[in-house]
Amino acid sequence: MTGVVQAFTAAATFDEVFVTRELNQRAASEIDHRWVKEAIQELAVHMVDGPEKVLPRFVALAMEIGRGVSSGISVAEFDEDPPQFRWAYLQGTLSAFEGATTPRDFSPCGITLDNDAPVLTRHSERYYPWIAEVNVALPEVLLVPLHRGSEKLGTLWIVSDELSHFNRGHVEAITEIAAFVSIALRIHQTEIRLSKALHEQEALAKEMSHRVKNVFAIVDGIIHFSGKRANSKDELVASLAGRVRALAVAHGIVRRSFRDLPDLTQAAELGELLHAIALPYEVDAARPRIVTEGPAVALGQHATNSVALVLHELATNAAKYGALTRDGGGVTVTWTMDGPDLILCWKEHGGPLVSGTPAVAGFGSTLVTKTIETTLGGRWYRQWLPEGLEMSIRLPLDRLRE
Q1: Quick one: which of 13, 136, 145, 153 has its CA closest to 75?
Q2: What H or E segment, with its residue span, contains residue 332?
Q3: Are 125 and 136 in contact (CB under 8 A)?
Q4: What is the pLDDT of residue 369?
Q5: Coil, strand or helix at 203
Q6: CA distance 363 to 229
Q7: Which residues, listed in sequence order, are joined to residue 18 by a DSSP beta bridge?
Q8: Backbone dihedral angles phi then psi of residue 71, each to the nearest 5 degrees
Q9: Does 25 share its domain with 164?
Q10: 306 φ/ψ angles, rounded to the nearest 5 degrees
Q11: pLDDT at position 3, please?
């Protein structure tokens, strides 16, 4: 019910719709207060034996007391953007709208909470387009605020199909019950928040378990391939240590982002990851040796580990054989979007003169190829130019979000 009727023109003014002042002009109906107290006692029993029955029974009692044709609770959901009410426990003619949402700042319920007092409306569909668009006529609606202390929880509303129907007697009786039921509504909202928190905690645990398994699988692969290529124990230790450190950097970024970001599929940002990988090779912060430039690119938690390994291998090779072996050498890393793909360019300069393509591909090259082509589903191209290595990597964006 939060849609907006195009070109809607209000057929009534605010003062013509909000007629709370008329309540004091109408004779109060006879209310059986003993029956009201018995109803409160009944609700108290439900609070202990079956709390889930309290709110539906409250709505039914309110409709019975007010002799209305429909009733319900508009539950405050002010943490949403924009803030809204959600209709719950609906009875009578409007029960088909169970779960519908209405705007906090443009609704009779919002006015009721702002006034913190009962409100009476007459044909509110003539003022609010979101009511008019569903072709509902509301001759009179009595609204009562629900709150616990200063916390605004929502509103109770009762609909009558007759004009001049509600009076002070209805207001007094329903307000008396509402004060008690606000406690039940507060408990209900707390249970919803707790359930949501438990669900998020369970999701966190599952994701963390999956990520740990993924890291172990990567480490297992690194050990397996490194063991085949290493010529000595020291060489094996050095290669393993560097690659595991790269994973640790990636994991640190993922862990922090996993905590901070509401979207669990976005674990890190490419530029931030590049900076973290490059940091060990920097000497003078004013003159970075690895210069990066490109738009923000969100990486998924799985892709982050793979990209970190690739960048670590490239930086390690540059420090062992390429541009980063010389004081004046450096690397420029740029990336751009090309339709569904990301294109990352790695360009070294200022290093030792390159005589051509190396005769033998080392483990690092094999790892980069496997990671780019198999794990990330991409392609890469290399040129061994005299001034240094130039590389272009094309990666599908959808794989980077995994």
Answers
A1: 153
A2: strand 330-338
A3: yes
A4: 86
A5: helix
A6: 6
A7: 121
A8: -160, 165
A9: yes
A10: -65, -45
A11: 44
Tokens of 46: 């439900």
Tell me how many domains the chain contains: 2
| Cα distance between residue 20 and residue 144, in whole Å | 11
Task: State how far the Cα of 246 lies from the Cα of 308, in Å rounded to an integer.
Answer: 6
- Name the nearest CA neighbour of 352 among 377, 312, 384, 375: 384
Structural tokens at position 69: 């044709």
Q: Do 275 and 134 lie in a common domain? A: no
Does the pTM surpass 0.85? The reply is no
Q: Which amino acid is at 110?
A: G
- Cis amide bond preceding 82, omega within 30: yes
User: How many Cβ atoms are within 10 Å of 258's Cβ, its own excluded?
Assistant: 18
Buried b (16+ CB within 10 A) or exposed e, 28-44: eeebeeeebeebeeebe
Which distant-in-sequence residues (6+ apart) come within 8 Å of 213 by Cβ?
none
Q: Which phi and psi (to 5°) does residue 336 adopt? A: -140, 165
Cβ neighbours of residue 190 closer than 8 Å, sequence gap 6 or more: none
Encoded tokens for 65: 């007391």
* pLDDT for residue 297: 92
In a domain? residue 8: no
d(CA 219, CA 365): 17
Q: CA-to-CA distance for 330 and 282, rounded, in angstroms?
A: 10
In a domain, 215, yes or no: no
- Answer with the one of 195, 220, 246 that is the final residue of a domain: 195
Averaged over successive runs of 10 residues, the pLDDT of the chain (402 residues) comes to 51 92 88 74 67 79 91 89 91 94 93 94 94 92 88 91 93 83 67 68 60 58 58 69 62 50 58 82 74 91 82 82 84 94 94 75 74 90 89 93 82
Q: 170, 195, 220: which is the final residue of a domain? A: 195
Would you state the structure tokens that stand for residue 372, as one six-digit string? 């780019």
Examine residue 214 and state whether it is found in any structural domain, yes or no.
Answer: no
Q: How far apart are CA 95 and CA 64, in angstroms?
A: 15
Q: Where are the alpha helices (DSSP H) in 144-269?
A: 168-229, 233-260
CA distances from 162 to 30, 123, 137 (A): 18, 10, 11
Q: Which residue, 58, 162, 102, 98, is CA-closest to 111?
A: 102
User: Quick check: is 336 in a domain?
Assistant: yes
Q: Are strands 151-160 and 70-77 parallel, antiparallel or unpaired?
A: antiparallel
